[in-house]
Amino acid sequence: MTLDLFAESEVSTLYFEEQARAGGFSACAGIDEAGRGPLAGPVVAAAVILPESFTLEGLTDSKKISEAKRESLFPEIRKQARAVGVGVAHAEEIDRVNILQATLQAMQRAIARLPVEADYLLIDGITPLPVSTTQKTLKKGDSRSLSVAAASVIAKVVRDRLMVHYDTKYPGYGLAGHKGYGTKEHLAALDRLGPCPIHRKTFGGVRERVHQS
């Protein structure tokens, strides 16, 4: 059965999970990432397997909700989920293999760290993972699937917390505020201080400043 996208607004955000169960799958994992675009820090992926009966008010794409709301949802997702896994690819790996490949690696690590083995994957985006597990890619999956939305919140909160930690380790860049994105403040700090070890040296905005430091 295929989903009529025209009528999708009327469809449950557990539709894809229900379809997986109807197809005989018992552990459907939603997968998403945070941090593809920043100039500094890791890309973080999460995989989340939700129970059949799951509700959590306010859960949607992490980019559409406030930091405070994400922080309140985070422990509830961890409490209610059947399984949560997190995978990370750091800046040096991103520079070595490119951001897409590093993201796919982080997603595979998140799946591998699930305490319950997933037999079906719902992946945010359009790029399938090079694994044998049955999978479906979903454009804007974090708005269409609660499992993917849950993964988006987990990934975003974990990454934001990492960037707050890095701010204490590499002061002066404002990492706790902009989380590594290419803000005017961040670029000015790069001009002043040069890149630090967690900057992505192959990214525009950093690349031009590597040899100036």
Shape: elongated
The value of Rg in angstroms is: 18 Å
Order of strands, main sheet, comes to 3-2-1-4-5
| Low-pLDDT runs | 1-10
Number of DSSP helical runs: 9
Order of helices and strands: HEEHEHHEEHHHHH
Number of domains: 1
Distance between the termini: 57 Å
- CATH architectural arrangement: 2-Layer Sandwich
Q: How many β-strands, per DSSP?
A: 5
Mind summarizing the main beta sheet? Answer: 5 strands, mixed
Structural class: alpha/beta
Average pLDDT across residues? Answer: 93
CATH class: Alpha Beta
What would you say this structure looks like, in words?
- By secondary structure, this protein is of the alpha/beta class.
- It has one domain: Nucleotidyltransferase, domain 5.
- Helices cover 42% and strands 15% of the residues.
- It has nine helices and five strands; from the N terminus they run αββαβααββααααα.
- It has helices at residues 15-22, 67-80, 91-97, 99-112, 141-144, 146-169, 175-178, 184-193, 207-210, and strands spanning 28-34, 43-49, 83-89, 120-124, 134-138.
- Strand 1 (28-34) and strand 2 (43-49) form a beta hairpin.
- The longest helix is centred in the last third of the chain and has 24 residues, at 146-169.
